Amino acid sequence: MPTIDIQNLKKYFGKVKAVDGISLSVEQGEIFGFLGPNGAGKTTTIRCMMDFIRPLSGSIEILGKNAQKDSVELKKQIGYLSGYVSLYDKWTGQDHIDFVSSLNGAKDHSKELTERFDFDPTKKTKGLSSGNKQKLGLIMAFMFQPKILILDEPTIALDPLLQNTVYELLSELTNNGSTVFMSSHNLAEVDRTCSRVGIIKDGKIVAVQSIQALKEMRMYTVTAYFSDHFDKREFDLEGIEIIKELPSGLVLNVRGDLDPLIKKLGQFDIKDLEIEHASLDDIFLEYYKK
C-alpha cells in the first residue's frame, strides 16, 4: 500500500481550477519530487495534504489514514515545511522549538539539528536572516524524525554547504524508512535527491516518471555547421524545432528519433556536427510548455 495516495483530487477557487483531478502515489522510503511552474497547483496540493484547506472532491490517504478525518493524528507523524516560514517575532528560535515539542511529545532531536545547521536558537526570530529562518523551519520539520516529510522548497535561501546538510538528512531519514514529498524549483536538487517526480501544470498531472526515465527520454540538441548554402525550411520536419540560427549553421531541438534529421543532413555538405542529449532542465521545460 502506498504511503501517500492521492486520487482524483480537485480544489477550485471560484472559477480557478487550482487542482483539477490529480492522482499520484508515493511509496515508503521514497523521495518524491513535485514539480511545476508557479501557479501550477503545487502548494494547493500540499495544503490539502496537510488539511489546511479542504478539497472540493477526491481523496488523500497518508500512512493509510484519511488526511482530513485523521488530520490531528497524522500531524504527529508528519514533518512539514511551508514555502514561507512564518514565525512569531517576539519568540526566540528555542521558544518555537519548545512549542512544537510540547504539541508532539515524541523524542526531540532538535539539539543535534541546531548543531548541524549551525543555528543559534537563543536569538529572537524578528532579527533573523531569511537563511536562518529557513534553518529553524527545517529543524522543526526534522526534529522528530517523522515517518512523512512534506517540504515546500526546502533549501531556498540556504548556501550550498547547508543544502548538502539537508540532502544528508533526507538520505538518513529515508534509509530508516521515512517518506519525503518535496516541492522544488531547484532541478539540480531534484536530480540529486529524488527517485521519482510528478510534474503538474495548470492543475493537472502531465507526467509521473523516474528521474532515470526522464534522463533517457529521446530529446537532443543538434548543432550543424554547413560548408555551403542551406535552406532552413528544409528542416521543417515533425519533432524538429529550430532554436537558433548561426552564420553558417543551425541549432535544432529534436524530440524522438534522430534518424530523419540525420538523413536530411546527409543531403548537405556538413562541416561539423554536434549532438547532445537534452539536460534534465530542458526536459522539464518541455513538459512545462506542453
TrEMBL record:
Ranges annotated as spanning the membrane: none
Any GO MF annotation of the entry: ATP binding
Keyword terms, alphabetized: ATP-binding, Nucleotide-binding, Transport
InterPro entries: AAA+_ATPase, ABC_transporter-like_ATP-bd, ABC_transporter-like_CS, ABC_transporter_ATP-binding, P-loop_NTPase
Residue ranges that the Swiss-Prot or TrEMBL entry lists as coiled coil: none
Nucleotide-binding in keyword set: yes
Domain called ABC transporter: residue spans: 4-227
Residues annotated as signal peptide: none
Protein family per UniProt: Belongs to the ABC transporter superfamily.
Protein name per its UniProtKB record: ABC transporter
Record organism: Candidatus Kerfeldbacteria bacterium CG_4_10_14_0_8_um_filter_42_10
